[in-house]
Amino acid sequence: MTALLTVFPHLGLIAMVMSLSHLLPLGVSIGHDDGATQAFVVSMLVNFSVGCAMWLGTRHYKRDLTPRDGILLVVLAWCGGAAFATLPLLLAIPGLTFTDAYFETMSGLTTTGSTVLSDLDLLAPSLNFWRCLLVWIGGMGLIVLAVAILPLLGVGGRQIFKAETPGPMKDAKMTPRITETAKGLWVVYAIISAACAIAYYLAGMTWFDAVIHMFSTMGLGGFSSHDASFAFWDSPVIETVAIVFMLIASINFGSHFLALRSKSIAPYRADPELAWCLGIMLGSCAGIALYLDWMGIYPDLLTSLRYASFNVVSIASTTGYSSADYNLWPIFAPMWMLFLCSFASCSGSTGGGIKMIRAQLLYIQVYREFVKLLHPTAAVPAKLGGQVMENKIIFSVLAFLFIYIASIVAMTLVMMASGLDDLTSFSAIVASINNTGPGLHKVGPATTYAVLSDFQTWVCTFAMLLGRLELFTVLIVFTPVFWRK
User: Fold this and answer.
1) Global confidence as pTM
2) How big is the CA angle at 174 (ends 169 and 151), to the nearest 5 degrees?
3) What SS3 class is residue 374?
4) Per-residue CA distances from 327 to 119, 147, 243, 301, 331 (Å)
5) Tens-place pLDDT, residues 116-144
6) 3 state SS of 186
7) Rounded to a whole number, what is the distance in angstroms from the first to the last CA of the chain?
């Protein structure tokens, strides 16, 4: 109870600040006169009022945040943020249930991009704007945003930052103060986002589509304002712009930050994940293009390369856009893409999955075990990027992988027990826990998650939260040791 009272004033401040995010879609609604204005006004007032009440009622409990407090604050901020974000959807879309609305907003904030909504082309523009804005906000993290703009959260800010930041190397400092780091990351994020929106516009999108697809591209969330996603434009130029910025967003934003600050590409050369990330994604594009051409799916190799490149990068980066129904491709191709989304993006990016750095460390550990079998007394340090990784990091990665696999297996079995077929169950869980979006079969790119029952929808919602906060942050809250003094 003490931990809850400690984080409540911070949650209240976050809620008040996040209520201001309604101003952008509110302006869009007024400008388009789309009928959703009242929904955003009511939602903004409710968000601010509840946040203010939480802060006023518990501000005297404020103290320095412990690691336990930071974890609890992150989990409650994401769960509560998604709940409050449902209000515009519930008020403006007739017949939408809370289950579906919560799935939609959790999908946005966790940058998953799965949707239960159809007829997106007919949806109020401000609601599409709101969905995609949630992806952009979630991309760098609600908590990092709060630390960047709320100096009041500077006390204990590192505990929050470490709980939310993806990847096993969370202690790496880019600036001496956590607030400066968060601000620096958001400046870089904003600069690249602006470039992305301009590039989309120049490639042929309207300004409205350019902005909202910039939101979901930079957040690697995959929401679109069109049911057909990028097939709506059928434009190689627009697809190329998307590929470039999806790849950029898949790279560690710490590297972008350091490169911008030093005005040098040296930080990219020093990034041990970058070459592997780009190499595996681009190599897979070529491999799947050759496979599709060999199988005669498209009339020529160039067409195969076009569709393979866009959809492979989209799924591997955990974005979730589509320009073709790859559900109809031979099963090898979409299964390979689904495998890539588990690890291809870098730590510190807006992507999901276990991250490339963990995959590299697992590979290094396997190699060490091979050497140990042949030379039992040999000292084989785990080196990555010229640095020796401590065994505690290796152990942490192994524990993470175990929980990751166990979570996928457990939730897949739960989905199957609820009556869903095996391929849909497995792909829905993998796509959700990796924050990828579309799965296969019944939840493929040409359909939505509306085919799921309420129970199955909640399982996928939990999987999205679990994946976005990297498992331990969520699961530890359910252990007795977490609540023990």
Assistant:
1) 0.92
2) 105
3) helix
4) 20, 41, 20, 20, 8
5) 999 999 999 999 999 999 999 998 775 56
6) helix
7) 11
Chain centre distance of CA 252: 13
**What Cα–Cα distance (Å) separates residue 378 from each residue in 46, 383, 441, 450?**
63, 15, 49, 55
Cβ contact 418:455 at 8 Å: yes
Residues 363/394, Cβ–Cβ less than 8 Å:
no
Residues sharing a CB contact under 8 Å with residue 127, sequence separation 6 or more, in sequence order: 25, 34, 36, 88, 89, 92, 93
The pLDDT value recorded for residue 169 is 44
**pLDDT of 3:** 62
Q: Tell me the helix, strand and coil percentages in the chain, rounded to 5.
A: 70, 0, 30
The span from the CA of 454 to the CA of 231, in Å, is 29
3-state secondary structure of 319: coil
The counts of H helices and E strands in the chain are: 22, 2
Match 């609890």 to its residue by tokens.
Answer: 72
Q: Measured between alpha carbons, how far is 90 from 426 in angstroms, rounded to an integer?
A: 29
Mean confidence (pLDDT) of the chain: 89
Tokens of 47: 């968000």
Which helix (DSSP H) or strand (DSSP E) does residue 393 occupy? helix 391-417
Nearest residue to 341 (alpha-carbon basis) of 357, 330, 353? 353
Report the Cα 300 to chain-centroid distance in Å.
34
Instruction: Name which of 91, 96, 136 is nearest 113 in CA terms.
Output: 136
DSSP assignment letter at 433? H
Q: Which residue has the tokens 């515009």?
A: 88
The residue written with tokens 């191709």 in the block is 333
Q: Show the low-confidence residues of the chain (pLDDT under 50).
A: 146, 148-161, 164, 168-171
| Diameter of the chain measured on Cα atoms | 74
Alpha-carbon gap, residue 277 to 251, rounded angstroms: 8
Q: Per the structure block, which two tokens stand in for 460?
A: 């996928």
CA distance 107 to 103: 6
Residue 142's pLDDT is 56
Structure tokens at 296: 């005669």
